[in-house]
Structures are given as C-alpha cells and as structure tokens.
Amino acid sequence: MATVAQWIEGARLRTFPNAIAPVLAGSGAAAGVDEFDPLIALLALAVSVSLIIGVNFANDYSDGIRGTDDSRVGPFRLVGSRSARPGAVRNAAFACFGVAALAGIGVVALSGQWWMLAIGALCIAGAWFYTGGSKPYGYAGMGELAVFVFFGLIAVLGTMFVQAGTVSGFGIGAAVGVGALSCAVLVANNLRDIPSDRVTGKRTLAVMLGDRDTRTLYTALALVPFVITVLIGLRNSWALLGFLALPLLLIPLRAVVRGATGRYLVPAVRDTGFAMLAWGAITGLALAFG
C-alpha cells in the first residue's frame, strides 16, 4: 500500500505551475478591464489544480496498466512502481475530476455562464482520454495540442471570461504565451522519454519528430511568450517585466540545446514549469495594474 508521501509524489506537485499560471494570467486580464472577482478566481484555481492532479493520476493509471512506465526515467509512478493498486489510482483520478466538476459548477453559478458546463465536461474528458481509453490521443502525437488548448487557451481565457464576461486581445496574448510554455514542459518531458516510449509503442510527438527536431520545437515554444511580451509591451510597458522570467529558462534551454538526455532532462521539465509560473504571474500583474 502506498504511503501518504508516495501519493503526494504521485500527484506530481511540480506540474502545478501548469494549473496555477493560467489562472493568474486570466485573472490579471480580468482585473485589467476592472472585472476581477476573487471568489470566482479561487474557484477557477480549484478547478485547474484538481484537473491537473486528476490527469496526473489518470496518466499514472493508464500508463501503468499498459506497462509504459515500467522502465521510464522521471517522476515516481504509483502503478508502475507497484506501490498502489491500479484501481485505487484510477479512483483517485475520478475523485479529483469530481472536485473539479463541483468547483466548476460554483464558477458557472456565480458567473451565470451555464453554457460553460460543456467546456468543463470537455476538459474532464480530455484529461481522461489523454492516456485513457482504447485510443488515447496522447499516444498519437496530440498531447501538445491538447495542452495548448486546455491549459493555455481555455484555462486563461475561461478564467477571464467567467469574471469579465468578455475576452481581450491582451488576454489572448497571455493565453498563447502560457499555452506555449505549458507545451514546452510536455515537450521536454517527452524528449526525455523518447527511448522508452519507442520501446512501448507510445507515439508521442517527440517520438514522431525525433530527437533533433523535438529540441528545436522546445526552443521555439520557450521563446514564444517573450515575443508576446514585446507585443503586449507596445501598449502596456509594464508587460515588459515578463522578461524577468527569461533567466529561469536559460538552464533548461542550455540542457536541451546541448543534447541532455534521460535523467539530465528532469530539471529542465521542472525549471520550464517555474518559468511559466513566473511569466504568467508577472504578465497577469502587468495586465491588472499596467
């Protein structure tokens, strides 16, 4: 039976920036049009964090029962390590999805945007079928696109919309920037796992592109937010503070560009997430007060 510490490790706390950054950016964009609602923002954060814990447990379960995690380098896996029963991990994923659904209902009740329940249902389905089901889209090179849509566009713009009832050009820019960095986190993760994924038949985008092109993709995605910073900075000079997040990317960029592999890419995944959190927070503050 897994210990509490192992369950916490299985929740993969290092992925939390993927959930927190879009809510910060979206709330900042809402505040920028004088429509910030702290209660809705907190509930949106609960939705986002519950979803990412749920998707982490769902991936642990689905990859574990397929044997994909048997020889993978990286974070601790509950099922792959045989520390927890697959059914228990699956149930934990469903419990997290339930929490996300309840918080989401609170969001739409307060905002009056009841049609967004359909968006919430789509997000939960996307979280499960990433590696779950008979034909998981994460095994067909679609993971990065899903991350960009769910933890970039939907998370940022959805957070803004439920508070402000509208989206702005600045909000769209923030959504693209957060989505690009969220994709970069996944690309670095999948770059690390290319050897084991090839053996187990998991055809991620990294497996399809190959080592060299995956490194090029990571570099491009990591730089996209700073192009957005310049563009937003033309209208809001405070947004240029987003460049303060760039130093956090120097070490992971160097590791990827210089050909780091295996466990040497684990810090790159973590540090890219921290850079995303910093960029999302700074950009959100700039949109709110700039």
TrEMBL record:
Q: Which family does it belong to?
A: Belongs to the MenA family. Type 1 subfamily.
This protein is called what? 1,4-dihydroxy-2-naphthoate octaprenyltransferase
The catalytic activity of this protein is classed by the Enzyme Commission as 2.5.1.74
Give TM segment ranges.
Answer: 39-58, 88-108, 114-133, 145-164, 170-188, 217-234, 240-257, 269-289
Domain of life, source organism: Bacteria
Q: What is its main location?
A: membrane
Compartments, as annotated in UniProt: Cell membrane; Membrane
Tell me the organism's taxonomic lineage: Bacteria, Bacillati, Actinomycetota, Actinomycetes, Pseudonocardiales
> A Pfam family for this UniProt protein?
UbiA
Q: Which GO terms describe its biological process?
A: menaquinone biosynthetic process; vitamin K biosynthetic process
The membrane topology of this protein is: Multi-pass membrane protein
Which InterPro entries does this UniProt record tie to the protein? MenA, UbiA_prenyltransferase, UBIAD1
Which terms are listed as keywords in the entry? Cell membrane, Membrane, Menaquinone biosynthesis, Transferase, Transmembrane, Transmembrane helix
The record describes the protein's role as:
Conversion of 1,4-dihydroxy-2-naphthoate (DHNA) to demethylmenaquinone (DMK).
Q: Which organism is it from?
A: Saccharopolyspora karakumensis
Catalytic activity, reaction form: an all-trans-polyprenyl diphosphate + 1,4-dihydroxy-2-naphthoate + H(+) = a 2-demethylmenaquinol + CO2 + diphosphate
GO MF annotation: an example: 1,4-dihydroxy-2-naphthoate polyprenyltransferase activity
Enzyme category, top tier: transferase
Pathway as given in its UniProt record: Quinol/quinone metabolism; menaquinone biosynthesis; menaquinol from 1,4-dihydroxy-2-naphthoate: step 1/2
HAMAP family per the UniProt record, alphabetical = MenA_1
What do the Gene Ontology cellular component annotations say? plasma membrane
